[in-house]
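Input (LVIVD repeat-containing protein):
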Amino acid sequence: MKANRLLFLFVLSIFALTGCTDKCEETRTFKRFIPVTLTLRQVREGVRVEGARTLQNPGKIYTKDGYLFINEIKEGIHLIDNRNPASPQPVAFLRIPGNGDMAVRNNILYADSYMDLVAFDISDPTHPQEVSRVESIFSSGQFEGGSWSVNPQTVMLSDQRVEYVTETVKTDCDAVGQWANNCPNCFVFDALNSSSKSPSAPNTNGTAGSMARFALYDNFLYTVSQSDMQLFNIQNAAKPTPRSRISMGWGIETIFPYKDKLFIGSQTGMHIYDNANPANPVHLSTFQHARVCDPVVVHDNIAYVTLRDGTQCGGFTNQLDVVDITSLTNPRLLKSYPMQNPHGIGIDFPNLFICEGVHGLKTFDAQSALDIKQREHLTGMNAYDVIPLDKTLLMIGRDGLYQFDYTNPAQLRQISKIAVSRPY
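Output:
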């Protein structure tokens, strides 16, 4: 009996030691934010034209007159000759510190540069020329979850540089997935992570994706921040003049102009503004939803709203909401469709395109709002936003700019791809 007891204690001690020394390996990919301080002079003197370069960290897309404008997040804009979509040709890189959005009226490109709005003459796309600047019109913003703000007293800009870090570490097996709580300066990488014109105006505008924060209508440029909408009079296109600023609450993300209405996507709902008087948009209603990210596009009396969760978005909802806006003062949910992690959205009725982040791109037949049918699901790409244009679909993602022919909407045909080349 004594021998059995000793054997039991010995075996128990082996299990205890094994339990204490169990180690697992975990691969982590995360964002690390590093504080950066710049003078406003440094920002303004940083604008210049450079030779064409590869995509590294693409963001928003825009198109006009056969040219593509692809934002390189917080660095500037790629100008690409896309008159032959099968063979797009990069022509220049316009370095603009703190750039995230853009819009084009006639031959004038508008772009944000942290606190400033800058106008460029792009009559010759290979040599854009700065023609005017509205200084210190924006006070703060975000890029990839990192915040920036201007201190008007010190005339300094505080920013956060984002680094993507991938590492493999040893950890207690029970602690796998809990490491982020011990890294206060880290941020888990979110791997999930159209402009109109006045009928009587001779001006021509470009076309933006659903993630745009800039919009053009009549003689005005509208820009939305996280909490308000700033209006600029662009009757003289080369010299934008600030007009009113409209408070819209927190969590504002996107703006989509449709006819004489503005549809604002936010983290808590879709706001509808009457823009019959372009100098004074008037709030009509809000379609509320759970706290999530929320771009929107519109066709006739139907709004298509994609809702997604994620580190920066909050919430736990991933779906497409189809909203009846026949009564603009009383928008009504018709039906919700489950999605995986929807980002940008595009409509060329009845063709509906939805970017699903790391899950790829999906196409739908939206002929019936109550019976939207999935046609195709393309995987192996990280889809962020789309622009349907004359049977050619532009799609931007973390791995590059894709172009598809959707003459047959049930089977997209890839025309070309501009791949991303990252240094990390």
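The radius of gyration is 24 Å.
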